[in-house]
Amino acid sequence: MGTHYATTPFGRRSLTLAHVASQAIAKTRPPEKAVHKWNVFRAICTGKSRIGVSERALAVLDALLSFHPETVLTGDGLIVFPSNQQLSLRAHGMAPATLRRHLAALVDAGLIVRRDSPNGKRYARKDRGGEVELAFGFDLSPLVVRAEEFEAWAEEVHAEERALKLVRERITLCRRDIAKMITTGVEEGVPTRRAGQGPADWTEIHTLYRAIMARIPRSATRSELEPIAEELSLLADEVLMLLETHVKTQIPNGNESQTERHIQNSNPDSPIELEPGFPKKQGARSEPTSEPRRMPEGSYPLGMILDACPDIVDYAKGGIANWRDFLATAAVVRPMLGVSPSAWEEAQAAMGEVQAAVVVAAILQKGAAINSAGGYLRELTRKAEAAEFSIGPMLMALIGARKRDKKRA
């Protein structure tokens, strides 16, 4: 007398064509085929987006696999029959209603097949020798039949993740190169227009760069990032060409000795003066370049400011290790943002040199959220003169926004 397994589920559960297809796939399993259950489970976890199951459903599948006594899935004994109470305990105390919902999701995804008994209970009938003769529960046969399919999906997901990682690395490298090359161009006074062609100035190049960066979504896919990476790569090549053309013009017969003397004569630690016509205040004493500037009185720690405004580091010539580096970098960023010398002078007079530089870093960090950097700085200057502005809440808001973005990512 042959064994008949039920085709339809017990109770009010309906039968769908997808369930019929899963049962048909389970029947095609060769009796001699064997797979490692945990290898299949890892492949399913990797390719869960292709399969259409959630992490909670995978936790239930993990619990179901733990009820199969062998590590290898093979032969006819592939039906597990735990009660909902036992299954809930192994699924980390999942609620009964949630458990039933995720079991249904596993069945709909074709990972398991229901083998319901006449009364809907899960149990096994054994023969006189103690061997399981007939079992009612969940059939794991689809995992054996579709093992190669799950592994192929896992490989595709791994390849997609690797491609996404590569394009992100490309964007990071282009971003670093463009920012530092723009800084060099501003510091060295490199012309951007040749024979009446090219961008008007470095501010225009920086505006184009920030516009490209503003198009990057918070949770971007590879297809969204690839065109942006291509645009950044082209922009980086164009900026590098400007610098190389300037170097060839300055040193037409350049050799190693001339290049070496040029590097030795430069002073990367000296403050950058982008506005020669701006008079220095009388009585100001220059600090020695070998000694880093201490934290100004009443200011926030430099590490906290860089945590709130990390984008300014991209414009530093050799990183920001002290306040002198920070102030020099802010002097480079200020004209790129379109802040006029008069607005900058008023901000320094109202806030102080350090706080004005911090505000510039904050404006850079906010990016496209500020339409006019110069107008925004003048408004903050007016509030500072009226004692209505404090830089602390601005830094806290930026740090909080970065933490929220990391959580969303």
From TrEMBL:
Region (Disordered): 250-298
Domain Plasmid replication protein C N-terminal residues, every copy: 13-185
CDD domains: HTH_ARSR
Cross-referenced SUPFAM superfamilies: Winged helix' DNA-binding domain
Superkingdom of origin: Bacteria
Entries under Pfam families matching the protein: RP-C (PF03428), RP-C_C (PF11800)
TM region positions: none
Domain Plasmid replication protein C C-terminal as annotated: residue spans: 301-399
NCBIfam families for the chain: PRK13824.1 (NF010396), RepABC_RepC (NF040974)
Name recorded for this polypeptide: Replication initiation protein RepC
Species assigned in the record: Candidatus Rhodoblastus alkanivorans
